[in-house]
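Q: Predict the bound structure with pyridoxal-5'-phosphate.
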Amino acid sequence: MSRVAYVNGSYVPHGEAAVHIEDRGYQFADGVYEVCEVRGSRLVDETRHVDRLERSLKELRIAMPMGRGPLGVVLRETVRRNRVRNGLVYLQVTRGVARRDHAFPKPGTPPALVVTAKSIDFAKNDATAAKGVKVISLPDNRWERVDIKSVGLLPNCLAKQAAREAGAYEAWLVDDEGNVTEGSSTNAWIITKDGVLVTRFADNGILKGITRTTLFDLCKRENIRIEERPFTIAEAQNAKEAFLSSATTIVMPIVEIDGRPVGNGMPGQIATELRSKFHEVAEIK
Ligand code: PLP
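A: Predicted complex:
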């Protein structure tokens, strides 16, 4: 099946989809993105993802490329044209095309919008979750505004690659105080011996995951306590459970951190339950 991409107003064959060489996303990483899970051909938590998109754009003073309504139409049309039943839809907005100059282009330069969609084998993800995954820790050497979902992801790519080369699924990033901030593309969680979920507070030092926010809703429903506070790798290694979260991994149990087993070295019961119940509270439309 041939894939299709949306590029600045047109649906084009994926293999021919291209942006201008002076697109500021290409030259300066001057843009932001969102990733939304697609489940049963519907979008999961679209409202929160578009809210965060608007916030990221506002922080960088980039205009929304179109209204929320038309954007929802483009997202769904891209999903439909790619016949994605289960998978993800990716959108990227940059400050547009302009003659290369670090300072912003002249007012009125239209932002650029690209949307792609791809299928994911959810059964395979479930099989991975049933076994649990390993993480390694690395220093968090990113800039101070990682709350903005910017396409400037080089430190994240280097961290993910280091994890892959170490046979791990994810790298947990550790700040100067020795506390875990988040993963290279996921939020980080532990569960204490008392069954309390712990995840770092969401300031400028982490991306406030949409999955994270929806998990807060689920925990409220399930009467599970959450503490937003820093934690160290040592505390995580000694925790009852650990897991990571993101739009495409949902809740992924962690069974090993830096070579040491977490809990009994098996996926935890609470993480596994949160994974199975997540879509009962998420917006799906
Ligand atoms: N943290 C980082 C650095 C990410 O890149 C992502 C997702 O891409 C997340 C956390 C999880 O966010 P979400 O749950 O919105 O997918």
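A: The chain has a mean pLDDT of 98.
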